[in-house]
Fold each of these.
Amino acid sequence: MDEHDLIERARTGQPSAERDLYELHVGRVMRMAERMTGDQAMAEDVVQDTFVRAFGSLSSFEGRSKFSTWLHSIAMSTCLNALRKRGRTRDHEQPVEAYDAFDPGCDDPDGALRLALHRAIDTLGEDMRATFVMHDLEGFTHPEIAAICGVEVGTSKARLSRARARLRDVLTDAFPNRAEGAQP
Amino acid sequence: MTDHDDLLKKLTSDYNAPREDFDREALWNRIQSERDASTRPVRHAPRTSPRTRRWLQTMVAVAAVLLIGIAIGRWSAPEMPDVPTDAPIVAENPTPTRDDQPSMAQRLYARDVLLRTETLLTEFRLAAVSPDPPASRALPWASGLLLETRLLLDSPVSENDELTRLLRDLELILAEIVQLTESADERERREIRQSLEERGVMLRLRKAVPAKVGLKGA
């Protein structure tokens, strides 16, 4: 049965169709929610709320966009609301001193570099972070991201470019020697 | 791709790394419970057939004509004679009664209208980047929401200033969407989207209808 039929059946309130739609999409929605929140329990709350809202307003889904786009649009909106409620600052397990402890000659320098980048991603603006996460980490295309965020494709590309530039700056500023001699 | 990009990709790939798997069954049960607990009492109206929609549109038009008639009647009615000086004095600002306060049902109804408006505006914004031409099917739906928004503006729910301002902005934007025709060009649609952005409508809508997301893990 194709997705269009599933949606039609779900609109008539058939639980099995809702369940099938859930099974089809929950994996990707959960991945995005976990990437965005960095908190499994919060991500589960986001996914729960996303499906509750989606099924509750399924009658208003007109099919002009793909169902997955519509669903991810709700998920992203729910994620951002939840993050605004919580505040974006997250405590990493590693202490701030990890930066200072970085030693280019040590056995595993990537740990500190990775931590620095992850913190830099945390500090990106909401839109840039969402775009970076969806495109570079979760493999969404620019047209998909544009549809989910309700912006033009060019805006999505610009946001990704700015996010990468910001991260490259962090890389260069924090670890100039490593960045110059970057290994693939 | 440069070395920088490769390094960046390698070191960010595990940012907030998602789990390989999670308990889908448990999450589904939570969704079902949440819907049982909260959605069903304020369940949205089932999808209407084209025939029912036409009937609803007709009824909306009749109601609009009646409202206009009443408005004209009030406007054109002769002024009431002055109250005699010996008439009993009535307090000009009586203490608000319980009737002035929005009831729980009115609050739920307002929330439902705002939720549906958020969905419509999201659809409208999505249509901007959709390869398909925007369908005119959304228009009757927008007209219904416009009417409901106006009703809310006249109800005790709008006693909150912030909500009143939001409802007024929604009224304007919905009115613009309703006036769009199938032949409307991209410029008109872009102006509406700009209007949405300038007024920060989506953000205010989401604040007015916050996601019911708990912070169990926070």
Amino acid sequence: MSSLRTKPFAARAWDALASLKVSITCLALLMVLVVLCTLAQVRMGSLAAVDAYVRSFLVFWDVPGTALSVPVFPGGALVGLVLTVNLVAAQLKRLELSARKAGLWVVHAGLILLFAGEFASAAFQVEMQLPIQVGETVDHLESPRDVELALADTTDPGHDDVYGVPESLLARNRSIPVTGTPFVLEMLRYSRNADLRPRVLTDPPSSVDMGTGAGVTVRDLPPVTADDRIDQRAVVVEVLAGGQSRGTWLLSNGLDAPQSLIHEGRTWTLSLRARRRYLPYSLTLEKFSHDLYPGTDIPKNFSSLVHLSNRAQGEERDVLISMNQPLRYAGNAFYQASFGDGDKLSILQVVENPGWLIPYISCVLVGGGLLLHFALSLGRALRRRRATVGGLT
Amino acid sequence: MVPAKMGMVRRETTLDFREPSGLRILSRDVTRRSLAVAAALFFLAAAGCRRDEITHVRVAKRAPAAPQGSARSIAWTLPEGWTQSVASGVRTASLKPAVAGHVEVSLTVLPGMAGGDLANVNRWRGQLGLSAIDDAAIASLRATVQSKAGAFAMYDFTSEGQKKRRMIVALAAIEGGTLFVKMLGDVAPVGAARQEFISLVEGIHVVAAN
């Protein structure tokens, strides 16, 4: 056997990467992260805590009294990545490529697939909502938490050209040219959470001189932490066209009605709204059912009977979506999530996750691999026993 | 352990550069390491591959979707002679009473409680140069106006000094927000339009959206 002193660096790094110590260290770090994330939920809310501790590569700490944010602990994504590579390396290094170890190969493949699936979900999964009234036809999904600045050309009687500027651009960019439109948006203010009040003369001067916001005062608030509430965003934006100002506007997801301006004969609307993803098909809510157990107020069943219309595919059919029977269509899964407005509003949760099958496949692989390993081990043990008994007789 | 047969050499699949076939083993091991590194890079790339960009989509016009949780909007009847600068049904409107003098009426809807009664009353009083009041005093200043959309709390303030200004405000929680109906102007025209202002508030109702 080679001594460690003569081994090249690459070989030593490979040994370290595949070592059991790395596996145990990663598992210990994951346990610490679970505790930290659980404690942080009280302060930040569950979604923000998961984003900060589990789905990030590093956990940051805001240095008090400064604008500094320094990394202080590996995040769940980094630990999971190291553990995945460790599992792959250990399997490739230690396991013999032989039929007697086939079961263990299958088990390890299942575990690695499970980790890979979680990374895929984190990277590609999108969760949105579809609130729909009885009798209403909807062709778009809405994000439950993200907003976008929607700039729409509504001049044409048959269609609207809608440009969506994501919140991440509003928060960090000063000047946003909206390609395809004559406009450049100059961001003057971005509030993650704000209180909107009627304006009085004693309020500080405002740069807003157009639209609904001219009569509103904005006051910054801390971001919400409760999972059942969302932040009320507010942005102050100056709209430029051809270098000329078309006014300074206050937009907020708390102001429902879009505000409009006319430029060179075309009518444009501005709004800050839940981020939308438009679908190539539509759903019409025919009927919403809310059943209770007889004689009680305990809900028994929620279901939405929807009509699915996809004209490009020539598809027209009714589908019943209930709590345990989602509609899976065109890469999306529509779940019955909530309801309101006296049973006239149904809220469907829509999940797009190309890796949704991976956990199921990995469970089959792990279970199958364990069974295979057990069967192979049992077979060897029985053959040894027969050989022993045969030798004695 | 099964003994090797004559002429058969057992090789372990572990790295040993001294073996005559070390190059073959090294090559296999490098392949294994490369696979592991490639897997790590793939995961890193997958985690960071989503970017936010401005989207553009052409959408066929439909009947306007109702706001989540509500299929209704607020409407009112204009008193005779009054003019309105924004059409009925839009969230904010400016009205002009049919009286001479400086007076204007505004309707504004803001989400949630929009600060609450006491905070807003003290802001309006401050605007007129009046001192702030507390919860105990606000009750004595409040009048109630019943409308089809619910009960409005109404407050009437007059400033002090040589040139007096008067403000009458009615506010109510409607459809998850707060509707403010505010009349502000010189004392005489506000007084002349007061009864029609109350009629305006009484006529506020909620209608189904188109």
Amino acid sequence: MRSWTARPGDGAVTATSGPGAGVLPHPPGALTATSRTRRTVLRGLPLLPSVVLMLIFLAGPIAYCVYYAFTDMRLTGASATHFVGFGNFTKAFGDANFRNAVWLTLVFTVLSSIVGQNVLGLFLAALMRNASRGVRAAASTVVVVSWVIPEVVAAYLLYAFFRREGELNTILRVLHLPQQNWLFTLPIVAVSVANVWRGTAFSMLVYSAALQEIPADITEAAEVDGAGRWRKLWHITLPMIRRSIGTNLMLNTLQTLSVFGLIFVMTRGGPGNRSETLPLYMYEQAFQDSLIGYGTAVALMLLVVGGLFSVLYLRLLRTEV
Amino acid sequence: MAVVSSTKPGVRRERVRDTRTRSAPRRSRRRTERLVVDAVLLVVTVVFLVPLAWLVLASFNGTADLRVRVPHPFTLDNFHRVLNSDITYRPVLNGLILCGGATALCVVCAVLAAYPLSRYESRYKRPFLLSILFTTGLPITAVMVPVYAMFVQVNLIDTMYGTILFLGSSALPFAIWLTKNFMDGVPLVLEEAAWTDGATSLQTLRHVVVPLMWPGITVVTIFTFLSMWGNFFVPFFLLLSPDQLPASVSILNFFSSRGTVDYGQLAAFSTIYSAPVVVLYAVMSRVLGGSSALGGALKG
């Protein structure tokens, strides 16, 4: 890290009076090259521990990931590691199980994140604005508690809910509706609903904050002009919170792409591979079949997709960093 | 726990005046509208509540199964059975060491890193912050396979400190981002005084900035700890020996080691394991004055 200068608008704090300035008597701009370098290094020094940790434990594994993905590495010890070029990738796309995992990941993401969490979160946030105080407090507490409890606990709770002898079927029996063994017949729907149950609070919080920022006079003006509920929603509310919608969709999607524990506990990717999304497929290949190289290639694809979403997210944010 | 903060007082007064000036049929329409909204919201709440209700009721139930029932007989037996060193104390202690250590590492590093990022300009600052934000979006699950391979090669696998280092580092990008945003809110005036008195930047940070932003640091600390406490896959991948596993992984034993699952004990253990999270979250939203502020901070 070099050339840190004082923040503009600091007023009295010029380059010479900041910490680590080294030489006080010089007027601003008259620092010699060596003392400027020295000041810069001193100022950047507090970043060092974080930078070192992130280089070793985040950038390192990502670089490893790129390297391993092109090898046939195994952790069995007997076989040596060879460079196999794009072999892992051609193998993946030729594998029906991999294509199945890609498809299920897509279904899981669209169903639980884009449709479920996002729409339900907005719906709840909008309802809460017009609800009475007690109901609002109760609803937000319950929704937020299901968000903050640990992932594995949430997974067990929803597992219990969807089991054949679980609560969902009990409710359906009371309502005289057909019952099913949900975890067997519709496993991907069950885990998607679980993810909605667990993740909606985040969208709700983001949208509550966004809705509060809409000035009241605009909606009132629309009411005076005779706009109905749906037109108000479509022409005023949605356009005014579109940035929050974008951010929320990105964050939800990124979160959902890497869901592992929830599905692992509820179904282990089964029955068969009917709820095996990419993270679970990766786990199975890398650890149960100890194909580290191949598993890493799958991980790399997941990383690239996540990276693309992340870039999109940064563009949407357009923060002034 | 009033999580979503209520509408601003000014807005509310406006609305009250509104209804008063409106004609009677309009006012009654408003009232029915509120009733409908309340009813719909209550239905959603009940649906969300069902799994949570099962958790609490089953943990006190002597004959718990998968249905939501009033405990019969009501008993603390499930808690007595799980409160021993093998099932509860050791995993919870492991979790505390793991998450406590990683949180301490992460927050100290994040506060140090946030200082130059918040206080000085540099041509490297923008790219640095952007890459940090970018990293917060990456699916960490995907990195676990190479991390596992790397840990096996350098003999960090199945070590507490190795796992602490990785947990702490993976939480760093977001913690730095959050801390920097909180630090930006601390005015510069007091620091200027310290600087002119000849304090170094570390002294200024410790004696001026940190005391001024303790609510922010509390939030970062609790948030980091909570995300680690619930983290399943990092310890699941990196720790192998049963006596080192934290509660998030040892909970799997309820299924694998015994043939039949004792749902009452599973629920009791889950309650114990989840309770600190709910309490800490309540503390955090109290500090923030409603967690919608966290929503705002998350948006960046």
Amino acid sequence: MSVFPESLLKSLDLCIKCGACNHVCPIFISQEKKEFLGPRAYLQIPRLIEEELEMSVDFIEYAYECTMCGLCDNVCPVGIQISKLILAVREALIDQGYVPPRQVASMPTKLSEEGLAFGSRELKAKWLPPDYQPGKGDTFFFSTCLSSEIPESTTAAFHLLRRFMEIETIGREELCCGAFLRLAGYKYLSEGALEECGNQLSSHTIRKLVVLSRPCLDYIKKLSDLNVIHVIEAIGEAVESGKLRFANSKKELSLGMIGYCDSYDLNYMAEDILSQIGGIKIIDMPSWASCGVGSLLSFKAGAKGIRGHFLKIFQLAKEMRLNSLVFLDSSLYLIGREISKGKTKVRIYDVPQFLLRFL
Amino acid sequence: MKEGELIELLSGIVGAENVLTDEIELASYSFDASNIRGLPNVVVRPSNNEEIIEIMKIASETGTPVTPRGSGTSIVGGSVPIKGGVVVDLLRMNKIIEVDEDNLLATVEAGVTVSELNRVLKDNLFYPIDPEIKGISTIGGILAEDSACPLSTDYGTARDNVLEIEVVLPNGKIAHLGTKAPSKQRHLIDFIIGSEGTLGIITKATVKLSPKPEARYGFFIKMSDSSDAISIVQEAEKKGIRISAFQAIYRDALKEIGEEVSADYIDFVGLIELRGDPLWLSSWVPKLREIISELDPVEIEEIEEEGIEGYWSKVSVVHDVMKTKGMTGLSISFTIHKDKMRDLLQRIDQASMRLNLPSITTFHPALGWIIATFLFGPEEKKESERAEKAISFVGEEVSRLGGSIGFGTGIGVSMADQYFKSSPDAVRLLVMLKRALDPKNIMNPGKLIPSREI
């Protein structure tokens, strides 16, 4: 009885098991190099399931450990697009009727009932004043489904953006773009969500869309007729043109930045922005202390790897005696907030929340 | 002892979080970079040599097979637990204990990878044995297999770059062999190096570091007769030229990379690298140029230092071909007397034609080292069977012509039968020593020595 399509298995069989991919995987490295948390094992186990192993609940949970950073794709000597195959495995599982773990399981229902991937419509409404209506501007802020779980982040971002630009937002009715559904392997649902989201956006005149979080940014970019940028890019432009200036920090602050593994531009931009603040010292974090774009999805699936990864990051911050950790994306900030829950002395922020302290 | 008891005992030694028993966890340790498969009963991840001693004592008492594992990069099944039992995963033992830059030594735990070691060294030093050329193999694995790499032409293999080792023996005793100076125990160290984990688990080593070369120079050559490669090596040696690396790809590979064969027939394409003091190079370069020119090369290109790295990919094409063709492959690695290299290259070509499989052959003329890879479509069962036949055939030819299988990669499972056929005396001696040190045959069983011989 076949779980995985033959074409997927054939692609997986091209793997020569050299192990190069493992040694660039941030989860593999931070979790003491456990073989099953590296890309190589992900490529081998589906075939083993076809041939010898039983399909199990363990495997379904395991399929969500990968945080989709894509670094493995760059080092494979035989050119396998590993992260794409791992995503294809998730799609195959869902196709066969298996249900992803934890919060990921409730995404389809939430999408059909509330038009969201997670959180709730009620909570999503709370970050804006109850009578908010978008104005006549053509630059919009896309708050994403995260706005119902980290309103402090969305509020800070919107507040900060409004300091230097005319910007609106769709508000309480904003629809899910489908990004996290895509990462979860709900391929068709995510495409449907993107279409609905696109229709909603078209009903407003939008020239530029500023998106809170990168997974959503990457996915919305598929709506080709939109000019889409990340919050950090918008802030960066304002800093460069002198529209935004920061006060100095009253105390000497040492901070570390945690960004996405492959968001080099955003990471550099964030560093430039934060270095404008006098009195803060940005300490370099090791390269493993970065995250894949699917980290939040893995976290919502209850994955142990990403959890352990963040615990390691907090431990490192403690050893380096950092005052603060600034997460360069709200989805990473959400994980950080959930995991740290008062357990760590290091204060955590995302970029907008951090910057607001110095305005 | 029941499995549950064993797991409890192991948890007592390393902590429950470092004992892996889930089906998926075990499955991920059931393979390495070879096509050999074997499921362990349990995986343990110790953090120091004392834990390994305790693990080994229990394994010895209960007769449980033990398979040590580093990064799992073996292409001969060295880290696959084919008899089940316990896999000892050394990747948590990755401390760099001491780096002595003045004396060019580094003492490291066995789980340290080559890139981890090279990363902490100052810019002018490096550890030269990098079989994967991505630096991901561990020092422990490299020593156990006595690995080689292209630079082995100059720097030797793993055994030539180690002074001290610490090894936990099958009876649970720990042995410190060697000192930081050349020692009388050299023959004991060499006994363990290359024994492929069948005589104990290497836990620590003091390896030799090398200074990075002051100057480098390259010759990229295309020639119409593979014996010319040998002639270059022989003439260079006579003239006192030290070649640091000489890697070539045979004409079978050239077909696969679509190399335009000019009017002159090209038998191989090679890269020769000279390294050292600029003064030596200024003497060697013109001499080597003359040697090569006298052999009437189809093409000869000289490369200055900065350009050399870029040329290495031109003689290292296996993965590119696999990528382009969407195929995977089986390899055999061996050394043969230089005079017989050409014969063997031709036999490999023959196998490729007779069995209708593309082959990519890389050889290192100065070492007499050849690696032949036969490619096949991963879903093609018949093709993969033919690939196994091709490897067998080449192995037999190597034995017939007095060569040695397993150089640079180890024998593992894949080559054990061939090795016994080709070198029965050596294997019988190994069996005697193995029986003395590991009477219960718990240490990496099925590797190096065919199981039926124990």
